[in-house]
Amino acid sequence: MSLAADFGVTLTQHVLGNQAHHPGARGRFSALLTQIGVAGKLISAQVRRAGLIEVWGATGETNVQGETVQKLDRIANDTFVEVLRRSGCVAAMASEEEDALIEVEPENAGDYVVAFDPLDGSSNIDVSVSIGTIFAIYPRLHPDRVGLDDILRPGRDMVGAGYIVYGSATVLVYSAGRTVDSFTLDPSSGEFFLTRRAIRMPAATKYLSINECNAPYWQPWVQPTLDAIKGRNDDEKRRVSARHIGSLVADFHRNLLTGGLFMYPVDRRTGRGKLRLLYECNPLAFLAEIAGGGASWGGGAILDVDPEGLHDRSGLIIGPAPDVALAERQYHEYRSR
């Protein structure tokens, strides 16, 4: 029996099989997803060799977010940009690591615009905690030009999104709007194989993922939300536990599979969130909603937010739909006082 028969459907086979659901895509959407898989394999190889080839640590640079750039941040960013630039599928890209929109030469430009966080959780690189890549795919608006209006759009305009986790295994999760499916990289063959079909997020919150050391900086609606969820624990059973990795992509992946609520509320001192709307919140919200969950900035759906800039930040509550709705009720009660 062949290796493919042992493991099942490859990522390429899966995206080609779903091509019929994108009749106007001319095969470019499938090719783009396949190329994102290629970029993920290259980044995964660098992550696994990081300690051996001395790419731990910082570059000494600061990115547009004001954060220290790690060496693997730069490698991942450059890898993603170059693979997509040569793919023939992308007209422009927006990266968390870059100040401006990255335009592709007209002769190589394709039908899509991609926003991505090349290496989410990079502060955990040096201690071998799971990190990942997050991406969002939009159709370009104009056949003869690209601009900020191609990417500064509500998340509901996305036609695809996903992430790649570099952990005990390298896992790629994506959706083109119908189902959320998961693929695991087999190192011996170099292929991503389908390992979870049509993932549905459990409706009950099993885990709470939140940094409670930030409690002094929360708005007043946050603590009642947490108290209501923790209150489900009683003498009969502990129904909710705390699990917070501090790497958004890893926290979301666990919660998607097992049922968990991730919260990073707006800071009451600044009135703004920490997570990036285009590169983190929107693509994960897209996946959460398709999987039956929900995602909110506190007072409304993340996917309805109209971004003003490439590096807008947002609060994020994402997980089982009932508890996202609970958080929104608490928010609106607080605001109505």
Structure, explained:
There is one protein chain. With 337 residues, the chain is an alpha+beta fold. It has two domains: 3-196, Fructose-1,6-Bisphosphatase, subunit A, domain 1 (Fructose-1,6-Bisphosphatase, Chain A, domain 1, 2-Layer Sandwich); 207-336, D-Maltodextrin-Binding Protein, domain 2 (3-Layer(aba) Sandwich), CATH 3.40.190.80. Helices cover 29% and strands 25% of the residues. The protein is built from eight helices and 17 strands. The protein has helices at 3-7, 11-17, 28-49, 71-85, 222-230, 248-258, 277-290, 321-336; strands at 58-62, 68-70, 90-95, 102-103, 112-120, 131-139, 160-166, 170-175, 180-186, 191-196, 207-209, 241-242, 260-264, 275-276, 293-296, 313-314, 316-320. The strands form four sheets. The protein has an eight-stranded mixed sheet, sandwiched between helices. It has a five-stranded mixed sheet with strand order 12-11-13-17-15, with helices on both faces. A hairpin with a 5-residue loop joins strand 1 and strand 2. Helix 2 runs antiparallel to helix 3. The longest helix has 22 residues, at 28-49. It starts with a helix and ends with a helix.
